[in-house]
Amino acid sequence: xxxxxxxxxxxxxxxxxxxxxxxxxxxxxxxxxxxxxxxxxxxxxxxxxxxxxxxxxxxxxxxxxxxxxxxxxxxxxxxxxxxxxxxxxxxxxxxxxxxxxxxxxxxxxxxxxx
Length: 114
Prior knowledge:
The protein is an all-beta fold. It has strands spanning 2-5, 8-10, 16-22, 30-37, 43-48, 54-56, 64-69, 74-79, 88-95, 103-104, 108-112. The chain is built from no helices and eleven strands.
């Protein structure tokens, strides 16, 4: 089970850090953040491999970073200089070759508005 938290309503230019805590060890998993913005399908934001290598969506590089704390079974998404177009539901994802399909959290709403 994955539980996201940290979303909310913020003004443009603000920062947020989302957390995703798992009910079991995340060590073996590739962890990711996805988002569904208004009128769009769910799309990848960032991923972090078990070894720590990260990938950030090109359009978000420089503003978003992903990190993980395996001891806390938690993955984070730090978002800076938020823009109105970042508004959406952010989902946590855990994937591994050992499972048939990835696990998903329920999502957390991020709203950026002035």
